[in-house]
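Researcher: We plan to redesign the surface later, but first we want a full-length starting point. C-alpha coordinates attached.
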Protein backbone atom coordinates (compact mmCIF):
# COMPACT_ATOMS: atom_id res chain seq x y z
CA UNK A 1 0.00 0.00 0.00
CA UNK A 2 2.87 2.34 0.78
CA UNK A 3 4.17 2.01 -2.79
CA UNK A 4 0.76 2.97 -4.17
CA UNK A 5 0.44 5.97 -1.86
CA UNK A 6 3.93 7.19 -2.76
CA UNK A 7 3.24 6.74 -6.47
CA UNK A 8 0.06 8.79 -6.26
CA UNK A 9 1.66 11.47 -4.10
CA UNK A 10 4.44 11.83 -6.68
CA UNK A 11 1.93 13.14 -9.23
CA UNK A 12 2.33 16.92 -9.50
CA UNK A 13 -0.97 17.92 -11.12
CA UNK A 14 -4.57 16.64 -10.98
CA UNK A 15 -4.28 15.59 -14.62
CA UNK A 16 -1.23 13.46 -13.78
CA UNK A 17 -3.11 11.86 -10.89
CA UNK A 18 -6.01 11.06 -13.20
CA UNK A 19 -3.68 9.48 -15.75
CA UNK A 20 -1.97 7.43 -13.06
CA UNK A 21 -5.32 6.14 -11.79
CA UNK A 22 -6.48 5.35 -15.32
CA UNK A 23 -3.34 3.25 -15.82
CA UNK A 24 -3.64 1.51 -12.46
CA UNK A 25 -7.36 0.71 -12.34
CA UNK A 26 -9.55 -1.34 -14.63
CA UNK A 27 -12.83 0.24 -15.74
CA UNK A 28 -14.78 -1.85 -13.21
CA UNK A 29 -12.36 -0.91 -10.41
CA UNK A 30 -12.88 2.76 -11.27
CA UNK A 31 -16.65 2.34 -11.00
CA UNK A 32 -16.33 0.49 -7.70
CA UNK A 33 -14.01 3.12 -6.24
CA UNK A 34 -16.27 5.93 -7.42
CA UNK A 35 -19.29 4.20 -5.89
CA UNK A 36 -17.43 3.66 -2.60
CA UNK A 37 -16.67 7.37 -2.39
CA UNK A 38 -20.30 8.24 -3.21
CA UNK A 39 -21.46 5.79 -0.53
CA UNK A 40 -19.22 7.46 2.06
CA UNK A 41 -20.51 10.93 1.15
CA UNK A 42 -24.16 9.88 1.18
CA UNK A 43 -23.76 8.09 4.51
CA UNK A 44 -22.16 11.22 5.98
CA UNK A 45 -25.20 13.18 4.73
CA UNK A 46 -27.53 10.76 6.53
CA UNK A 47 -29.01 9.10 3.44
CA UNK A 48 -30.50 5.71 4.39
CA UNK A 49 -28.56 2.68 3.20
CA UNK A 50 -31.40 1.25 1.11
CA UNK A 51 -31.87 4.57 -0.67
CA UNK A 52 -28.13 4.72 -1.42
CA UNK A 53 -28.28 1.20 -2.88
CA UNK A 54 -31.23 2.21 -5.06
CA UNK A 55 -29.66 5.47 -6.24
CA UNK A 56 -26.30 3.91 -7.12
CA UNK A 57 -27.69 0.61 -8.38
CA UNK A 58 -25.55 -1.42 -5.98
CA UNK A 59 -26.46 -4.15 -3.53
CA UNK A 60 -27.31 -3.36 0.07
CA UNK A 61 -24.30 -5.47 1.11
CA UNK A 62 -22.03 -3.09 -0.81
CA UNK A 63 -23.47 -0.12 1.07
CA UNK A 64 -23.22 -1.97 4.38
CA UNK A 65 -19.54 -2.73 3.72
CA UNK A 66 -19.01 0.95 3.00
CA UNK A 67 -20.84 1.89 6.18
CA UNK A 68 -18.72 -0.51 8.22
CA UNK A 69 -15.51 0.83 6.66
CA UNK A 70 -16.58 4.40 7.39
CA UNK A 71 -17.42 3.54 11.01
CA UNK A 72 -14.05 1.82 11.42
CA UNK A 73 -12.25 4.88 10.02
CA UNK A 74 -14.13 7.15 12.41
CA UNK A 75 -13.24 4.87 15.32
CA UNK A 76 -9.57 4.91 14.27
CA UNK A 77 -9.30 8.61 13.48
CA UNK A 78 -11.86 10.09 15.84
CA UNK A 79 -13.56 11.97 12.96
CA UNK A 80 -14.07 11.73 9.21
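Model: Full-length starting sequence:
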Amino acid sequence: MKTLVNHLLAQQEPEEMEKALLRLLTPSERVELSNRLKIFEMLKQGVPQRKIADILGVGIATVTRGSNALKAAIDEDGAQ
